[in-house]
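Priority: medium. Attachment 1 of 2:
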């Protein structure tokens, strides 16, 4: 009987881990989708920037954690300070 209870507990843990993995992938995909959409929507704004603003934006984008394998999201509010 102990082995049956123990196997049931392990199955429950495996199911929880599978669900956590599924949720993590879904969240990652959703965040990626929104970042891409914001980037596309921001393109007209980028086109209206002065040369010095474009240079500053390029500098910020070049040093973004995303360029170095991270998943940081750069907020426009940070750039506009």
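Attachment 2 of 2:
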């Amino acid at each position: 009987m102990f082995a049956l209870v123990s196997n049931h507990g392990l199955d429950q843990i495996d199911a929880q881990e599978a669900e956590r993995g599924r949720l993590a992938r879904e969240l990652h995909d959703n965040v990626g989708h929104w970042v891409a959409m914001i980037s596309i929507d921001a393109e007209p704004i980028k086109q209206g920037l002065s040369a010095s603003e474009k240079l500053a934006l390029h500098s910020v984008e070049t040093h973004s954690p995303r360029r170095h394998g991270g998943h940081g999201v750069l907020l426009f509010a940070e750039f506009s300070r």
